[in-house]
Amino acid sequence: CHHCKSRSASAPADTSKIHYEKFWLYRHCSSLQQRDRQAQKAGQLFSGLLAMNVVFLGSAFISSMIFNQVAITLGDVWILLSILKVLCLFWIIYYLLGTSRQPHAVLYRDSHAGAIWIRGSVLLFGMCSILLNVFHIGYSTILIHCKSRVEIVFPSIGILFICTQAYFLWHHSKDCIQVQHNFTRCGLMLTIATNLLLWLLAVTNDTLHVEIESQLREVERRFAGKAPSSYPHWCNETILCTCPNTTICKVFQKGYILLYPFNTEYCLVCCSVLYVMWKNVGRRISHHHIPHTKPKFKLQGVVFGPLLGTAAVVIGACVFMIYQIQATSLAPSRQVFVIYYSYYIVLLPLMSVGAVIGTIIHALEKKELDTLKNPTRSLDVVLLMGAALGQIGMSYFSIVALVATDPRDLLNSLILSYSILLIFQNITQNVFVIDGLHRQRVIPPGKEEDTKEQNREAYSQRRVSVLELGQEIRKASLSYIHIYSHLSWKRRVLREISFFLVLCNIILWVMPAFGAHPVFENGMERSFYGYSTWFVIVNFGLPLGVFYRMHSVGGLLEVYVTA
């Protein structure tokens, strides 16, 4: 066929532009392709070892800061991370100005990588992280008498790093670089390691902030009516370096606390995009990997999903505001916890039933599975499964603590039901999303041609006369109902379920991201496992849970679009 002839004709031209990888260990390989494959594996191995050593070094610094604040201070950790940020900045600038501009550097681009929603997340969380650093600089400047100057330099370097990295990921996340393979892999792995360390530091700092805040509440209850001199030593240090009674300082403080969770999400999203770029270094994409038609998001053919999802978002927002107002008091009432967990107990079964129905519909369909190599989809599956372990792990810890104490209590029984339902919801949603991501989007050739012919006819009819403008507007107003009625029932149900789950995951992402952490306040698990142990469990599980909800939104949107 003509398509096959054109493909074979273009193959030699593309092959002549390929820069095959070389590595000194495999210079004696007889086959050029074998030498290329071995060199690629060796490059991935050495760059991975580089990232592993950097992560271990940074983790040792952060752990030493937590357990021995005299020898290793937070300022020392900031200096190490600033050095890593500067090295990453130099490499990113070199990639932008040097590597990517070389001849035949980017012959292929991965159409599955760098989806618009994930690049939009990079920009959104990046802007929030920039504001966070601005508030940090302003807050540290006001308290310069008790703050180190490193607290001003570190966020300043952070702003430059975030801006440069966001620009790099927005424009080059789809690149399959074909030159300077090993140097590019090492640069990408160094940037991944730096983002992982920034995430680990952010989680650790959040742990310390929440711990100090909770302990301060206990101190205020315990030492009520006593002089400040009778407070513990750590509490005196906290009180000496507090915000003065000025509006601007309160704004910086509240803004910093509000935007803090977005920094952890920004680091995780950047790591996922950078990992896909690392896998795509030296990758050569064949013609059958390139999609002929790219699906687009259209809010058509759905009615009940948006209605139910909007209701869940509105009710969840009301519950969130009630919780935030009550939780800011020194003694949150049991009623607010009952309302919070009751909302989850109603919503989670609905989400689970929707995911199970969607999985059954996938099984009834005759669409074939897409078995082609796709690093982006493989990473999506790994991230969904890995991030879900955060909520699942916390739920199992809660179940053990509640069953071993008093499961008959009203609040404890609600938390127990919430934990069990959360495990089931995570599993069913993962099965539904992963199954949907592996389904091929098949359009029959005859139907595709008919659609193109109909579009051409409709376009020519619209140009006939301006007098028909009113009739065309009337037809457009009825298009939503027309498309909804002509979708098959399987397609319709899948789109309804996907859209409903998208909105539900958004509200379940917003609530913990903006500070709704009942696991810190109910006191049940904390009293069972001990203060320090429970905070370690929660602050590693909670950010993963927030990231899971955000990543699920992207996967569900893709399932919705392909449906």
From TrEMBL:
It is found in: Cell membrane. GO terms for cellular component: plasma membrane. The chain crosses the membrane at residues 45-66, 78-97, 117-140, 152-170, 182-202, 257-278, 299-325, 337-361, 381-403, 415-434, 497-516, 528-548. The keyword Ion transport applies. The keyword Membrane applies. Its main location: membrane. One of its GO terms (molecular function) is proton channel activity. It is a multi-pass membrane protein. Belongs to the otopetrin family. PANTHER family: PROTON CHANNEL OTOP (PTHR21522), PROTON CHANNEL OTOP3 (PTHR21522:SF36). This is OTOP3 protein. It comes from Rhipidura dahli. The gene is Otop3.
